[in-house]
Amino acid sequence: MTSILTGDIIDSRKQDDHFWLKTLKETLATFGESPKYWQVYRGDSFQLEIENCENAFYAALKLKSHLKSTEDIDVRIGIGIGEKEFNMAEITASNGEAFINSGYAFDTYLKKQTIAIKTPWHEIDEELNIAFDLALLTMDSWTKNSAEVFKLSLESENITQKEIASILGITQGRVSERQKRSGFESVMKLEKRFRKLIHQKTQL
């Protein structure tokens, strides 16, 4: 079983791709090599495979925070979990249940929210999509500064506010404020819940 993230940049035609394409590709590259594990296609769309399904929401958070901290660019991501029937050298040539579910989440659920999931388990989809919808009330409103602090906090699990303040050249109090505005603590509780639910299902 694997997970596939299908995404695109929101209002990409209104943006200069010079500002976000490099960030998108660099962030995707942290998950593996292209074109086997990720590809950018049609200019502003991408697919990414995360073989450990428990990491799929983390990957979505990483992509969103990197892009919104660059030039306030946002992204829509459909997460699909399922089997992978055909494993090709290029991810866009592979297919299977995970790809179908990712495409379904992207085409069906992302009309109303910017992150959604489709799995083989209806009760999981229902719980997580409601939770995503609520979390996105905060995440979709991230400023560049909030996204930047979220990104640093996300990627370095044990990093302190003092260390983040030093990196960004701001006070520890500002870091604390930006973490609160970004909803970091609550979003990471959801990320932990996501891991637990997916782990329970994939280990059956």
Key words describing this protein structure:
204 residues; alpha+beta; five-stranded mixed beta sheet
Detailed description of the structure:
This protein has helices at residues 17-29, 56-71, 97-109, 122-139, 144-155, 161-168, 172-182, 184-202; strands spanning 2-9, 38-41, 45-50, 75-82, 115-118. The protein has 204 residues and is an alpha+beta fold. A five-stranded mixed sheet has the order 2-3-1-4-5, with helices on both faces. A hairpin with a 3-residue loop joins β2 (38-41) and β3 (45-50). α1 (17-29) runs antiparallel to α2, α4 packs antiparallel against α8 (184-202) and α6 (161-168) packs across α7. It is globular. The model has no long low-confidence stretch (mean pLDDT 93).
Topology:
Elements: E1 2-9, H1 17-29, E2 38-41, E3 45-50, H2 56-71, E4 75-82, H3 97-109, E5 115-118, H4 122-139, H5 144-155, H6 161-168, H7 172-182, H8 184-202
Parallel strand pairs: 4-5
Antiparallel strand pairs: 1-3, 1-4, 2-3
Number of helices: 8
What integer value in Å does the Rg equal?
A: 17 Å
Helix content: 40-55%
The biggest beta sheet, please? 5 strands, mixed
Low-confidence stretches: none
